[in-house]
Each structure stands twice: as C-alpha cells, then as structure tokens.
Amino acid sequence: MMYAQLSSSSFWLSAVATLALCPQFACAAVEDAIARPNVLFLIADDLNLSLGCYGAAEARTPNLDRLAAEGVRFERAYGQGAVCTPSRNSFMTGMSTRTVGIHDTFVQYQKRNPQATSLGRHFRQNGYQTIAVGKVEHTPQHQDPQAWSLRPDYPRVKSKLAGREEMSDPRMPTRNRVMMQIFADQDKTDDGLRTDQMVEFLEHQREPGKPFFASLGFHGPHLPHQVFQRNLDAIPLDRMPLVREPVDASLFNPIAFSFVPWFPDEMTQRKIIRNYYAAVSQMDEQVGRILEVLEREHLMDNTIIVFIADNGYHLGYRGQWAKHDIYPDVAHLPLIVRYPKVAKAGSVARGLVELLDIFPTLNELAQLPAVPNLDGRSFAKQLQDPLAPGKPAAYIEWPVPRSNIETNINFLPAGHMAPKLPDDLKVFYGKAVYTSEWCYVEFYGTKIRELYRLDQDPQAFRNVIDEHPDIAAAQAALLHAYFPLMSGKR
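RE: above sequence
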C-alpha cells in the first residue's frame, strides 16, 4: 500500500495556502480539519499502578510522570475485564462486558447487534485518518474490519537476546512462572518496533486535511518482560515493595483465582517485582519517543493523548503473580489524559470512571455525532473540573473454570478449609462492584460474598461483610441490578 509522504510542516503550509486561495466560507471543511483535535490512544498491557505518578517510589517512569504533570491523572479508574479480550472489547466499543461479551470477537458482537460500532470505525466514518499499531484489539480476529485506515502487521523481534531469566513454582512450573528477556542496547524490543511504526506514521504517513486517530498498543509489561540491562540497573533490588499480608487477613478464597497461590522466598519475590518494574520502564521509554515526535511535529497542543492499561496485575497479593480475577490490583488501573485546550494540567480527578467511558469522552472532545446506546458515560467534565463527581459505581466480571478451582483446593495454604462446590457449575462467575469507599464481590451460584473497605484496605485483604450487613445489602443490590442473578450463569 502506498502512503502519502507528508510531514506536519508540509500539511500546515498546504492548509494555509489553501485557505488563502479560497473565498470566504468556501473552505469550511479545511478549517474544520485544522481545528478538530487529533487523538493518540496509548494502551499498556497488564499494567497496575506501578508508575511514579501513582506513588510507586521505585518506578522509573519519567515520561508517563511528565504526561500526568501536563494532564489529568485519574485516581479511580477501573477496567471491565480481568484480561485482555473482555477489557479491550469493552473500551473499544464503549459497552459493558454484559453487552459485548467476555470472549466474543467484534464480528460476533456485531452479528447480535447490527448497529454496533467501534472507537476506530466511528472516528474514521467522521473524517479521521485512523491507524492501529500493535496490540490495540486483542488479536486480529477481534478487530473491527472497518475501523482502520492503516493497520500495519505486528513487527516481530528478530534480534538475539542478551540474556533471559525465568522463575517458576516447582509444584506447577508450567502454570506459575514469570519470564524476562534482556535486550542489547542496539536492539529493539517489541515495543521499540511498534513505536518505530507509530513514528513513521506521525512523521510521514499522515494525510493532509485530516485529523488523525492513532492507537498504539504496547507489549509491556506483559510476560515475557522485555527489558534492557539499563532498566534493571536503575531499579534497586533491595527496595522492591513486597506485599505483606496482614495478620488479620481473611482466608484465601480458592474460587476467586485462576492460579495456585505461590509464595517464593523474598529474594525471588524482589526479582520478579524488579523485572516487572524494569519492563514498565522500557515501555515508558517508548512513550518518551512518541512525545518527542509530537513536539517536533508541532502536534502537542492539538492532540488528545490518552494513556491506559487494559488490566492490572498482581505482584504477590494472595500468592498471585498474574491477573485473571476481579480484585483491586487487576481492576484498578492508570488513566492519564493530556489535552491542553480542556484538561487542567497537573490535576488529579478522584471521581470513579470506567474504561468504557473513554469512547463517549473522546467523542465529546472531538465534537463528533453522538453514538446512541453506549454503556459508557463521558468524563470530559472531570478534565475541566477534577473535583466534579464521577460515576456512582464501576463493575468488573471474570469467570473461573471449575478445573482451576479444584487445583487451587489441592494446594490450599495451611489452615484453610475447602469450600463445597455446587455440582452443576462448570464455570464460576465472579463479579464485583466498586464504589467510592467499598468493593463488594460475589461469586454467582455460590454463597460466597465479600465486602472490603477500600479506604482502609486498598488491596482487599479483610472481608468485613459480617460487620456491615446493611452496606453489603446495598452493594449487592447495585451488583444485581447491573449483573442480574441467573443461577450462576451470566
């Protein structure tokens, strides 16, 4: 495919010259294209709140910290899915997982809902040049075939690794394991190659007279963690923040998790966390490259930059070194928005938002025609006024297969009693509602209910449901109104 080779300076010269030659009001379309904001949508993979701007003292993320200092950082943003597919299906359509499904592709969803659209398609149909680089939707079969003007193939790392490290649970080495790849300084990680593609677009492939919607999905910090030695060297191993389970923590719930709890020695824990932080740092370097290009091309002032993660990740909570559940480390995510024309630089918005709200927010900021029946709600007001209230609640769900639960039961920590599983359930649907102060969790088809007070217990260790029955009942009513009870099924 041939692309227009036009830099931003050429575009602006062309646009100004065109306006000079046009009679008054004859070139409204060109003026509109110049005024409409560009959008850059950056998506990290498996990133929790391990960023400097979110208070992670040992994180090395200067570029994302800069983005937060120049934009609005959302303190209470939540994803709708515990892994890539449901989360991305949700925020790319502006729909809840109860609508778009957990495992369905976009094409399957659209067969059930012929009027369905996607974020990329909507912007493309309204005059934007659109491009997706890397892992934006989960896999190619999850893509909306009408969303993207440009969709480069995934670049693949071909360089020889400078080193690797793997740590695994000896009881289940193929399930509980973490891997790291170390790259030589002159080589490119997956994220480096994807960033090359986005740089090529920003510098040479933008169409004159059109704003762009560009989305870049990073690999990092997803396993295998991809790092440079400099990323590892910059992070002190002895200062890695270990998860300390309080002495009054509630018992481990084997129905809640897809993985057997693994509690390696402290040095191994520190290495796993250090490797994760280094992978985040490597990804942050690529964000810095993108920001440099935007500045060089004079695009910063008229580009809405959104940074999110698809889901979070556990670094030792309840012996988990993964995602696949609905607790805070997985559900509670970074969200940063920079747009100088609207967003108040350096602000912190503390109202609740969900990732499915990104679609209507960008739609409002770009002043595009409204999309009917979206589940999401615009948070544009919070960009202007960070003290504005957010949503009353955020929701997430995830199914755990019976086989995983039975394996968990075989490896229960000492002193923990195995629950009796209903005979008719092959999949156990965990669903949670997050409000300003509380997290309520329920496993449909069972009698397991949990309530956590987030202001006192942000990681959700102490189930206080017996102490607050009235609050639990109110939270349950919210959850059941959103995810109706159906005998354990969705």
